[in-house]
TrEMBL record:
Protein name per the record: Thiol methyltransferase 1A
GO MF entries: S-adenosylmethionine-dependent methyltransferase activity
Leader sequence residues: 1-24
Transmembrane found in the keyword field: no
Organism: Seriola lalandi dorsalis
Record keywords, A-Z: Signal
InterPro entries: Methyltransf_11 (IPR013216), SAM-dependent_MTases_sf (IPR029063), Thiol_S-MT (IPR052356)
Record domain Methyltransferase type: where: 74-171
Entry keyword Signal: yes
SUPFAM superfamilies: S-adenosyl-L-methionine-dependent methyltransferases (SSF53335)
Lineage: Eukaryota, Metazoa, Chordata, Craniata, Vertebrata
Amino acid sequence: MSLLMRFFTLVVNVLCLPLHVIHAVGLYEIYKRVFPICLYRISITYNKKMHDKKKELFRSLPEFIKPGGQLTLLEIGCGTGTNFEFYPPGCKVICTDPNPHFQKYLDKSMGENDHLTFERFVVASGENMGSVEDGSVDVVVCTLVLCSVNSIPQTLREAHRILRPGGAFFFLEHVVADASTWAYFFQHVLQPAWYYFGDGCEVTRDTWKHLEAAGFSELKLRHIQAPFLFLIKPHIVGYAVK
């Protein structure tokens, strides 16, 4: 199956040549202006189908409030703000995303979630959040982001850096399927095209291995099957404690 997979991946890469050229000459940046509109609509459907999973995951957030304090949470790749509804009342939120064109949808989500205090929106990638001080947040949230960052290890190092001792990194990510499945085969074959549709998203990442190697003191991680297209059906969910 390996040779067959490589052959069809090559075929898809050839078919994607116009997209490769568009990306190489910088015209793909136009899509980054359109992508927030697409993601806003997709996120509504995703939240409906994953509502119970997200509610269960974020139920643990209050455990990381310092005694007598306010939960300070930073979300990497906040996108359109679809996680806001799951955060506990009084939570102070710092939003980061490398795409500044999400601001319109963030403003809308902020207005709909007045149980939170929004501190600021930082245009930054997960790999470089230098404007956020060391050990300054209780929780870092990252959902459907590690699939598209340039470096998962560096993003996790940054999350670890800005977390206070005892703070937690919450995650919900789609990952590569088991190598013995047809889902794995088609994830690799269709990846060249999916990359452009998902603004850099890669469905072939074994993200859990990076989390296991990130140096957290405790890792609670589960593999689940989400109710979506087979390409993004395999997910991991959980949190890691600094």
